[in-house]
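Hi there, hope your week has been kind to you so far. Please have a think about how the structure follows from the sequence. I've dropped the whole record in just underneath, so have a look:

_____
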Amino acid sequence: MTPEARKAAARKAAARKAAFAARKAAFEAREPGQAGRLSEVLAGYRGVPLSGYMAIRTEIDPLAAMAEAAAHGPVGVPVIDGAGQPLSFACWEPDCAMVEGPFGARIPLSGARMEPEILIVPLLAFSRGGGRLGYGGGFYDRTLAALRAKRPTLAIGFAFAAQEMDDLPLEETDQPLDLIVTEAQIIEPAG
């Protein structure tokens, strides 16, 4: 590894550590109804296939907004098929049978697949410019790149407001967010 690559990796590791701490504090201070603004945004896309996610650890929970959206069209959740691969998406409905998937995220037992046009994306940190810091596996970046090569695909970052960072250590392969929704506001990145 070159000195520049080591420096970039150390910067990302430090940013992730700070982001985990900020998200944990926001999670512990959260109030009910955190998905309200996300529901507002998704109301404008009724019937469009979308993917949410099953919250793990201290992630903000999109479940209420996903349940609302499922009344109007297909909803899926991401499935990790293997390292270095894009995500696939399993059809999800409220109260469907779930099993433990990779990294502890629950996935539907049925396993029927779907392809979303809107992705609600979990994250560690975001910037107002649409940057996203994830866990480091590159799953969402590969997935968004593949989906966007086929058709317009909307990436909505869902996070606590406290997860905003001004100077994210981004790379060329990082896919931008089209919209960021927090418990406090809806942010449309400039650009």
Q: What stands out?
A: The first strand starts at residue 50 and ends at 51. Helices lie at 3-28, 36-43, 63-70, 139-150. The chain has one domain: 3-187. The chain is about 30% helix and 20% strand.
